[in-house]
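## retry 2 of 3
previous attempt timed out at serialization; input unchanged, resubmitting
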Amino acid sequence: MRWKLIGAALIFAVATTGANAQEPIRIGEINSYKAFPSALGPYRLGWQLAVDEINASGGVLGRKIEVISRDDNGNPSDAVRVAEELVSREGISLLVGTFASHVALAVSDFARQRKVLLIAAQTFSEKVVWSQGHEYAFSVRPNTQVQTAMLAAEAIKIKAKRWAVIFPDYEFGQTAAASFKKEILAKHPDATFTDFPVPFGKADGGALVQAVTENKPDAIFSALFASDLIRLAREVAVRKAFNDMPVFNLLAGEPEYLDSLKDDVPVGWTVTGYPWNEIKTPEHERFLAMYRARYNDYPRVGSVAGYLAFHAVAEAIKKAGAADKDKVITAFEGLTVSSPFGRVTFRKVDHASTMGTFVGRLGRRDNAPAMVDWHYVDATRFLPNEAEALALRPKR
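## retry succeeded, writing output
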């Protein structure tokens, strides 16, 4: 009888172990879907495609990925609240997401305090990995400073001395403006700048075009996007303004915003963006085919970021050999993964990724807005070196 009981116990133990091994790896996902639908709708489709692809291939370490997603309403307090719910009630130790800088920083600080891993997939805030960086936070997209430097590398070539600087008057725009000036002054110390701050979402295109024109700059830098960009572009088209003036605009080549310009696309502006229908690398063609087959739509930059973020998580868990948070953090440092944009590395020194962007000009193809004369820029060229990155991060 004793041996039967031991045998039964062993069978139960083996069965329980097998069942536990097949339990899904649960990941918390937080983002501002209601507040920023045009940007985050495609991001959600991207990460859902990645999760389905991972699970269809057998999951990670024999376990499926299960995502518990929450909307943070674009509010830091709500974001921290839902993060706490995911950690306390759902037992989550790995979070992915965030978009707006103030929300990303709030969730990042929560991750630091609660010692959970955060993969900041969509935010542009450089503070997540630099001035407020910590061991539990990694970022995916090139941050504002890096992406601005990519565009400034083109602006430097024209040697303009008088610049008009247009930007949404909050952290993203202010950082973009300051970064652009820094890059220009490093090469052209005699350059001067006139600022044109715009309340976010409330640009008066006509008044803005008039004010910039009266200033008579040699060239223009703009960090406007979404509705502010559309209002500016419409007035530029109506007034036939800036025709002989070089204009450099962050993000305007991203399909999230480019498609909304329609007939008002300002042909000739130099921009950062994503020419999704012209990239012919094997990695991108594979991603594009899967995305279009699944959604009958084309990807946006957010789609790529979401897709990359969850594939990176899966690769880090695989490299760690377990879903243990501390092991996954170690695995993420220096991790290199394949993406639709090519190989991307999460740097050990500051947890920033080397995901890049495309720089080109706005034009038209097949009677539709498009990026032309573009090239891909790897973020490695513009990220700080190891000593500089360490100096940027807080001493803990």
